[in-house]
Design a protein that fits this description.
CATH class of the largest domain in chain A: Alpha Beta
Order of helices and strands of chain A: EEHEEEHHEHEHEHEEHEEEEHHHHH
Number of domains of chain B: 2
Largest sheet of chain B: none
Largest sheet of chain A: 6 strands, mixed
Radius of gyration of chain A: 21 Å
Strand order of the largest sheet of chain A: 4-3-8-5-6-7
Oligomer: heterodimer
Chain lengths: ~375, ~400
């Protein structure tokens, strides 16, 4: 172990480990999960350290093996900005995927749902057995597993649903097929600052500088996508759950109001609404920077969040109940059904620049503390 | 720009919170951010953000009001010269009319902005919060809903009342319950009724030597005539549509309001749900009056539906006042109810209540107060749906 990086209140942010020159795997024993009972599957996942790839809703935490979820969801398409194509990633890995699903199916008495897009051609998804295949279409956030759960099997108070990503299922599958915790992920290098966007096969936790090479100091390195990822800096490492690195130009230059600020004609401004003429040019491409494009304000505009928030939940009222710390109301308004990433688009479109993802995270933390 | 940026950067330390003029930090901040969208990169959450901000939003609303303002200037002049019996034709003396109107109207605009923004700057300094852009719109709305003969001191008092009691006591932009511009108007309406209603204030009859008002001139608005039983003197539907009649400065022209509506709807900044539902509400109430009017022998009720809506400030309120997102209902279902009831009540008050010739202002203010209640029930319905599901789980 090289270093432990701590943040506020001595919270552990990173544990830095120097890798050996060669990789040696501990053998946890191969075995067909379909022939095992729940306890054996759980123990194997826990003992090998693979378990944390399974997350639970509500609260967006690592699943607690002592609980049993009512169902498990795997979203098989990613609609996030510049997200990797999961059809490509799963290609030729059908056996691992199926084995992983078989293991997951032991964890719940309910269904394991895999949610695909109607455009998918991946036999690995379409031929998957032992699961319920659901089809969801639409623009982002249709690929967010939270949206899918809300419409297919909504979470009420007292219920749990577990989720795992496609690449996480592959890791579980490999564990049962080979007995090894093979933390390989295929990662997409994306963003306007990525000189040659590509897919890379690497390991969870790899330092990004080994993946992207030297980058301009004025570039923001994000582990994950541009809406929900973590800003890690050029010396950071690939996040545990991330399958994408996004390189964005930093937007720390002031913008003069007439030439490129709020009063400009705005022929190069991207906006989800129609207050800039670019809505007439739907195929235009942009290199968006990380400028906030305005200052934080009180809630003024209404109806904005609802357009990008496909839940039967009132997003602004929910945010306000969290800001007011009204636990009863948060519960009633549906906080159990959402996680921060579901609010990423709300945060993007917000005229008042309100950081709704972190507000939702605080709300979830409060609710968890009060109810458990 | 670079020179300007350098200048701003060079004086910035003086206005830093611990600088020499630190008390004026937020005033400086307001002006600086007006000139330059700050180079603030996102710190948490989504790394990329939409290009829209509140300044852009407000500037679009102001743009949408410009047709009303320009038409209002011309109409002020036109009505003035009609009263004097000069330039009777529509096209006659265009520049005379426009310049006369501009001389009357621009001081009101300047006073409204000067007083309102001055108070905002003061509150900003005292309370230590950044200036928010809300008053940019209110400051333009206030002149447009004033009669042309409103004394400037009264505009100042109204704007001050609206900003302090209507907005700042609730916490500033985004927190107010009542529409700020209508608060100003309602305050003046009840405090100085003789200056805000009747038939002496709508047309400027300031005379120079050798001029006199033509015989038979009254200065009443169409609604004033209608309320006093002279329905035959109400302007024709076409004149009301174009806005060639007496009234508050910016409210008379339906065409100008519709151009504004188009700007707000294309940009998506005004709510189409509210605009449509106010219109439908007004139409429904007028239709009811049309149906029962003949039986009651009430001529006012019998004004044809569309003509009824084109009178007074119905369209101005519909486009610019009812759609204020802060004071309207916030839920989509709520917006339909809120808007419809504004339409119904505006026509109801106008036609039935003899104390108030126009009902739009009171209808909107009343529904501003009711909007949170409407939203409450809409949200409760959502909560009940969720509870029902939970109950099923428990069972």
């Amino acid at each position: 172990m090289e270093d432990v990086v701590r943040g506020d209140k001595r919270k552990v942010l990173e544990v830095r480990v120097v890798a050996d020159a060669s990789i040696a795997y501990e053998d946890f024993g191969a075995g067909d999960p379909s022939t095992m009972n729940r306890e054996t599957v759980v123990q194997k996942l826990l003992k090998s350290g693979v378990w944390p790839v399974i997350r639970q809703r509500p609260f967006d935490l690592v699943a607690d093996p002592a609980n049993e979820p009512k169902s498990i969801f795997v979203s098989c398409f990613d609609t996030n900005p510049l997200a990797p194509d999961l059809d490509y990633i799963v290609h030729n890995h059908g056996n691992e995927f199926q084995t992983g699903l078989n293991a997951l199916s032991k964890l719940t008495k309910g269904k394991v749902n895999i949610v695909v897009n109607s455009k998918t051609a991946a036999r690995e998804f379409l031929d998957a057995k032992n699961v319920v295949r659901q089809t969801v279409d639409g623009p982002h956030p249709a690929g967010n597993v939270g949206v899918q759960i809300h419409h297919l099997d909504p979470i009420s108070k007292g219920e749990q649903v577990w989720v795992a990503g496609v690449q996480d299922v592959l890791i579980i599958g490999r564990l049962f097929l080979t007995g090894k915790y093979d933390a390989t992920r295929v990662v997409a290098i994306t963003g306007s600052e990525a000189k040659n966007p590509k897919y890379l096969r690497t390991l969870i936790g790899t330092p990004v500088k080994d993946l992207i090479g030297p980058v301009d100091p004025h570039t923001r390195v994000v582990s994950g996508n541009a809406l929900t990822g973590d800003r890690i800096g050029q010396d950071g490492s690939l996040g545990f759950y991330h399958t994408q690195i996004t390189l964005l130009p930093e937007g720390d230059e002031p913008k003069f109001f007439i030439t490129d600020g709020w009063a400009s004609a705005g022929f190069d401004k991207f906006s989800a609404n129609r207050s800039f003429p670019t809505w007439l040019m739907p195929s235009k491409k942009y290199a968006l920077d990380t400028n906030q494009n305005g200052e934080p304000r009180s809630f003024v505009m209404t109806g904005q969040y609802e357009k990008v928030f496909p839940f039967d939940i009132y997003p602004v009222q929910l945010i306000k109940s969290i800001l007011a710390n009204d636990i009863d109301q948060m519960e009633k308004l549906g906080l159990y059904e959402v996680v921060p990433e579901d609010f990423a688009l709300c945060e993007f479109v917000c005229t008042s620049k309100i950081n709704s993802q972190s507000i939702v995270r605080e709300g979830l933390d409060t609710l968890k503390k009060e109810t458990t | 720009m670079k020179a300007l940026r350098k200048l701003v950067d060079s004086i910035a330390p003086t206005f830093a919170k611990d600088g020499k003029l630190g008390k004026l930090h937020f005033v400086f901040d307001g002006l600086e951010t007006f000139l330059f969208t700050p180079g603030h990169a996102t710190v948490k959450g989504a790394h990329l953000r939409d290009s829209i901000d509140l300044k852009r939003t407000m500037s679009i609303v102001i743009t949408a009001m410009i047709p009303c303002l320009l038409f209002g200037m011309w109409n002020v002049g036109h009505q003035h010269y009609l009263a004097l019996g000069e330039f009777l034709g529509m096209g006659d003396g265009f520049w005379d009319k426009f310049i006369f109107g501009a001389i009357k109207v621009l001081p009101i605009v300047v006073v409204s902005y000067g007083v309102g923004l001055g108070i905002e700057f003061l509150f900003t300094t005292i309370k230590g919060h950044p200036i928010q852009e809300g008053y940019l719109v209110s400051g333009m709305l206030i002149p447009l809903v004033m009669p042309v003969d409103t004394p400037l001191w009264m505009v100042a008092v109204g704007a001050a009342f609206a900003v302090i009691i209507g907005k700042e006591v609730f916490g500033g932009t985004g927190m107010n319950i009542l529409n700020v511009a209508l608060t100003a108007r309602a305050f003046l309406f009840f405090a100085y009724p003789t200056m805000m209603s009747g038939d002496k204030v709508w047309v400027n009859t300031g005379l120079e030597e050798g001029q006199q008002v033509v015989d038979g001139f009254s200065g009443a608005t169409s609604l004033g005539y209608a309320a006093t039983g002279q329905v035959d003197k109400v302007t024709s539907m076409m004149d009301s549509f174009w806005g060639i009649e007496a009234g508050s400065i910016g409210e008379t022209s339906v065409v100008a309001c519709l151009i504004g509506a188009l700007v707000l709807l294309i940009t998506g900044i005004g709510s189409w749900r509210i605009m449509l539902s106010v219109f439908l509400g007004g139409l429904a109430m007028s239709a009811i009056f049309n149906a029962v009017g003949p039986g009651l022998g009430n001529e006012y009720m019998q004004i044809p539906m569309l003509h009824q809506l084109m009178l007074g400030s119905f369209f101005f309120g519909l486009v610019f006042m009812a759609t204020d997102p802060v004071t309207a209902s916030q839920t989509n279902t709520g917006k339909w109810i809120y808007g419809f009831l504004i339409g119904v009540m505006a026509i109801l008050i106008r036609v039935v209540n003899p104390a108030y010739p126009e009902g739009m202002m009171l209808a909107i203010l009343f529904m501003n107060v009711m909007a949170p209640l409407i939203d409450h029930y809409v949200v409760q319905a959502n909560i009940k749906r969720r509870l029902k599901r939970t109950a099923l789980v428990a069972a």
